[in-house]
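Why does residue order matter? Because the sequence determines the fold. Keep that principle in mind as you read this record.
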Amino acid sequence: MEERNESRGWMRLAGLGFELAASIAGGAFLGWWIDRQAGTSPRWLGILAGVGAVGGLYNLIRTALRASKEAARGDESAPAGPSLRNRIR
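Structure:
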């Protein structure tokens, strides 16, 4: 069961990376298309790629903070005993 939860975590991380890349690529593609239609060479490509990067990073940070809070809540409900950190030392 633990292995399944671990693979779910890796899939979540892979999904976040894909979402970040897709938001930047989507903004860049839309900006390229607008620039091509309007004849304004790299202006909209740069603006919308930046907006995609900001939006993707916002989503990444928001999801990472939510996962961190969930992990902290999970630690509180763990059985009493030495933590993993103490076992490693």
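Residues 83-87 have pLDDT under 50 and may be disordered.
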